[in-house]
Amino acid sequence: MKKFWALFFFFWPVVAIWSCWVAPARGWWFPTEAMSPLGERIDGLFYLILGIVTVVFIGTQFALGYVLWQSAVKGDDEKAEFSHGSHSLELIWTVVPSFVLVFIALYQMDVWAEFRVQSFYPNQTQEDGPRLELTARQFEWRVRYPEPGTELKNQPQPGDLYAVNEMHVATGRPVKFNLRTDDVQHAFFAPELRVKQDAVAGLIIPVWFEIPKAGDYDVVCAELCGWGHYKMRATIVAEPQRQVDEYLSNLQSEQNFDGVVTVDDEDE
Amino acid sequence: MATVSPAIESHSDDHAQGHDHHEIGFIQKYVFSTDHKVIGVQFLATTLIMLMAGGALALAVRWQLAFPWQTMPIVGKLFAGEGGQISPEFYTMLFTMHASVMIFLVIIPILAGAFGNFLIPLQIGADDMAFPVLNMLSYWFMWPAMFFFFASFVVGGVTAGPAAGWTSYPLLSALTAAAPGSGAAQTYWLLGLTFVGVSSMMGSINYMTTIINMRAPGMTLFRMPLTIWSMFITAILQAFALPVLTAAGFMLLADRTMGTCFFVPAGIIVNNAAPTVGGGQPLLWQHLFWFYSHPAVYIMLLPAMGMVSDMLSCMCRKPVFGYKPMVYSMSAIAGLGFIVWGHHMFTSGMNPALGMTFMTSTMMIALPSAIKTFNWIGTIWGGNVRFNSVMLNCSGFVAMFIVGGLSGIFMAAVPVDIYFHDTYFIVAHFHYVLFGSTLFGVFAAITFWFPKMFGRMMNDTVAKWHFVLSFIGFNGAFFPMHLLGIVGMPRRYADPYLHPYLEHLLPMNQFITCSAILMGFAQILLLGNFAYSIFFGKKCGRNPWGANGLEWSAPSPPGHGNFDVPPVCYRGPYEYSSPEAEALGQDFILQTEPPPDMKKTAETESAEATA
Questions:
Q1: ipTM given for this complex
Q2: CATH number at residue A191
Q3: CA-CA distance, B165 to B184, in Å (whole number)?
Q4: Are A103 and A150 members of one domain?
Q5: What is the SS3 assignment for B125?
Q6: In this structure, is residue A94 part of a structural domain?
Q7: Residue B69's domain spans which residues?
Q8: A137 and A246: one domain?
Q9: Average pLDDT, chain B
Q10: What is the number of domains present in chain B?
Q11: Does the residue B377 lie in any domain?
Q12: Cβ neighbours of A227 in B, within 8 Å
């Protein structure tokens, strides 16, 4: 029975090794690839940590299973070892993990800076300025574009164009937008782009991402915002700049439509 | 009669005591008792009942995730008016109350309240707490807290309740219009939180004073069992972190009821209500809340770490590996615990430079946890392990703590946290720490100190079954949650399958729910074993485990005043299998056992003390 219990605790590292073996082949992790360059770097960090953690996990769980096993095969009358510890071992397992942890911390500073520190944002976003304003509210996403040819202002302008739950952005270049909320706290989460940013009442937060490939990308809300939290679904439509311009001019004519329909002569 | 009430049995030892003893009435003895042991057992019983309540709420949450919008079995009849299914409003209330109950009414009081109360005087050789009446009040302040939490859940009908999550971020929690149905409920919730805080505060002052002032002669700081160290450090954490939360709670209460604007910016229109006035800042709440609630994570973990160190050492018949590094690690965790709160706020919009600081301090706090883990494995290494349910639960604690600790590294890394924040990866992580570690530690501690509480043993076979079923159910429920998080499934979604990229996760969620139900039903074994053993368990002597601590030199259960003679401590708590013990022909040596050359003087002294 003793041996059974020792084996019981071997179970975890075995499952871990098995899943490390099987998972990549079956594509179990990250079913969608990161669709942005920054997302790819975040994934890279994830896999780096996953590697380190897997080694440590298997190592410590095996050590736990091993010390239990060692004792399980021992006779009942055998004495336990009388030891209060080992200074050198303590030193080793203090110094080695601290180096690993400091390495992990320092290694990813620049990804974080690029994602969030405005002075490290790509130059293009500084030149372009924010392309649109995304306002979260219970329970939808409202998009405000500046009038084509003008810059986005924090205060709504008469020529601004509005859309709901659909934001059109250009592919192949970093796009910056302003994130705000009308009411409670929400969070902009685009899983495929690995971007997440809370929208906080009273703050205007600039967020950027870059999408190389045209397509539709999900946006969900990641901060509890009320009963309809799960329903806040929007789409990022990434397409070449030309099509974005086309979309905006359609939106503009739609919005400027005054309701007067000119009737064609042929119908009479 | 004596077999029916365990506490009456403690009278059998009364005649052996050198203390003044006067008869007290039933109410004073068992209900409004100032005896730390009775208060400890009261805390334990209350929190175990709350554990079941919190578990039931979790199962309701799991039901919705596995079988969305389907009529709930059995309990669905309670709200048949709404179709017997969980509405999205009700869902937010369910997970809010699950977390609130589990954190404020189970984990914190079961560690500090139940085990802290029961063990501190016994393990340091005191006859009671420094402030017994304060101690009694700290238990009875739990009742208004429970009352308010439950009132918040029923005040507006069956499906009304606080709906802002246990973190209660404003504005959702500050503006009544933001969450319909949570009007009075959220206010009651805040009142409940305040009472829990007052209760913890009274406990923490008491524990610090008792540990500093009331140690038995010879019980130096570095002869204290690690349980006492952990309780001491926890009490310090509570004393310094809790006032911040209490203050924040009052500020939020004022925002809700008195029209102040601590957390509410101007011009916000929620749900077509009138625009708000005033220039508050919702991020302020997050800072204040996490300034308490991150140290609270360690309040919910450190005592379990301390108790597991004690139990592992006893069950392996071997001293704790690296006693002082263990103490220093716990102190380091406590110190660093105060400067890592921002890692809950990486995506919140606070200054990004702060994110880097918090990332570094968070990485550093992983270090003492790693040292502790290695020391636990070192403790088992070369031991003569007794594979009973205590040992299994302790090993389960270590194994699960490794998982919970390592998954924390992902979130400590800010760029990776951008993706994982508020997904199921987080849910998996903190359940591995709070359930996987703390609760397995608690299960072990219940079995281990049960004989001292009631003078009887718990059934080991049933306890082993309880462990195995809980362990399998637990891992089945929470390990797949890592994968849900990696796919990007956000927390607190009443219906994640609305989003095409999450549709394929339904079978995995159903598996998780089945495992959770298994885990839930396994707890019946614990409760049954607990209740049965109080009355019919095998009777035991003073020291059934052959342990070293002072508590094992007292009668089981100890009478009023705890010890026959005031104990004197002569050695450290973990001298298992030491040469001196072997000289006595045993593998343990009680802390009260004087060294051979002092034995004679000690005997005369204790004879004088009894006389």
A1: 0.92
A2: 2.60.40.420
A3: 15
A4: no
A5: coil
A6: yes
A7: 30-265+278-300
A8: yes
A9: 88
A10: 2
A11: no
A12: 87-89, 91-92, 163, 179-180, 494
Nearest-angstrom CA–CA distance, B473 and B468: 8
- Nearest-Cα distance to chain B for A237, in Å, is 16
Residues of B in contact with A80 (CB under 8 A): 316-318, 382-384, 576-577, 587
Answer yes or no: is A265 within a domain: no
Judge if A57 and A141 occupy the same domain: no
Shared domain for A46 and A144, answered yes or no, is: no
Q: What is the CATH number of the domain that holds B106?
A: 1.20.210.10
pLDDT in tens, B423-441: 999 999 999 999 889 999 9
Range of the domain at A144: 129-256
Shortest alpha-carbon distance between residue B10 and chain A (Å): 34
Model confidence pLDDT, tens digit, residues A141-153:
999 999 998 999 9
Give the torsion through C-alpha atoms of B491, B494, B500, B502, to 10 deg. Answer: 40
List chain B residues with pLDDT less than 70. 1-23, 79-82, 155-159, 599-611
What is the reported pLDDT for B227?
Answer: 96
Regarding pTM above 0.80, the answer is yes
Instruction: Determine, yes or no, domain membership for A222.
Output: yes
Of A9, A28, A97, the CB nearest to B370: A97
B406: chain A residues, CB-CB within 8 Å = 53, 56-57
Is B446 inside a domain boundary? no
Residue B267: what pLDDT? 85
pLDDT tier at A74, thresholds 50, 70, 90: confident
Put simply, the chain A residues between 41 and 70 with a CB less than 8 A from any chain B CB are: 41-42, 45-46, 49-50, 52-53, 56-57, 60-61, 63-64, 67-68, 70
Give the orientation angle of helix B440-454 with respect to helix B36-66, to 10 degrees.
Answer: 150
Looking at beta carbons, which residues of chain B come within 8 Å of A93?
370-371, 374
A25 touches chain B (CB under 8 A): no
Tell me the shortest Cα–Cα distance from B377 to chain A, in angstroms: 6
pLDDT at B66: 93
Most B-contacting residue of A84, A104, A141 (CB-CB within 10 A), to test interface: A84
> What is the residue-wise DSSP string for B367-432?
HHHHHHHHHHHHHHTT-----SHHHHHHHHHHHHHHHHHHHHHHHHSHHHHHHHTTBHHHHHHHHI
A132: helix, coil or strand?
Answer: strand
Structure confidence at residue B274 (pLDDT): 83
What is the token pair recorded at A35? 């669709």
Nearest CA in chain A to B316: A80
Among A114, A127, A91, which residue's Cα sits nearest to residue A208? A114
User: What is the distance in angstroms between the Cα of B532 and the nearest Cα belonging to chain A?
Assistant: 26
